[in-house]
Amino acid sequence: MYGSEPAKPPTPDDSTPMSTAALYFLPTTSADTSPLPDLIDRLATQYDPFILPRWSLRHRLFRSTPVPRSADNDVPAIPARHLQILSLPDHPNDSFVVITQASGPASSTSVPAADIISLPAGQSTDDFTQLLVSRLSLLWQQRQSSAVIDGLAYEVGDFKVKVGELRQGAGGAQLVRGVVVEVTHRVMDGGDEDRGETQDMITAFWDELGVNGAREYKGDGEKTAEDGFEVVRLWSELLMLKG
Q: Which whole-number Å values give the CA distances from 210 to 35, 42, 46, 157, 220, in the listed order?
């Protein structure tokens, strides 16, 4: 229905340096306060960054209906799974479908095993979403929708930083859950050792900002980078909003 060939992961242009990323989530402590102004002030005063175009992100989360073990135990129970539909600012022509097991430690910020495909953004993604909502609603139940609208982006040397408020819900019922941050840095060679060093540089950059209370999400080199979906995995884990 959506193409006979398997979807390929997004690949950068040959002239575009490879990069690695880490994500950070700063939860709101009350409905009247946001960590965003303090974070922007720290970036401005410590780094005097170059301002980049604004960005947005959209995310929908579905959970499968669990299938219990049969009465005679001949058929094992099928655990629930999560299905996420995700659009990211660096991939305006693609949307991503991410399927993971629903179980797991609530406090974990590691990147779980996931099946990921890409769909053309626009009508194909809308058709797929409508299929889940209208015809497969007994199998997949929508749990939440979230978005970042008009997020801010900066360039600090070889670092690129995106920040924005993560809002959950629709229309006037939206709730600000916290502030999301994506920090990327180009990787010179793309090898595992170089990626590890780049991750350390990102961590040091974040530590220098002196922002406390953030949850960190980062890849582990080869495992999350080998198929081109590293940042998709990181965002899908963060947007589950565990804990």
A: 13, 8, 10, 19, 24
